[in-house]
Amino acid sequence: MTFTPKTPAFEKAIKDSRNLKAKPDNDDLLEVHSAPNLDDQAGKAKYNAWKKVADEGMTHQQAQEKYVKLVNSLKEKYGFEG
Prior knowledge:
59% of the residues lie in helices and 0% in strands. 18% of the residues are buried. It is an all-alpha fold. Helix 1 packs parallel to helix 4. The longest helix is centred in the last third of the chain and has 19 residues.
């Protein structure tokens, strides 16, 4: 996977994901963390979720687009304070 700069939509989705009214369930959280972002302490589970995406050959751009769609669906599912 080659590096692609973060799009404005991806940056917004990152911020929005931190302002959901309720905490997403574990499955939703793992999906959120399957985007190439390994800064977090939850480590192995997040890495494994990301690795699955990478092994499928998803580009950074595709991963960002998937993340934006996912966060938008979570905003509807859990509410949003933004």
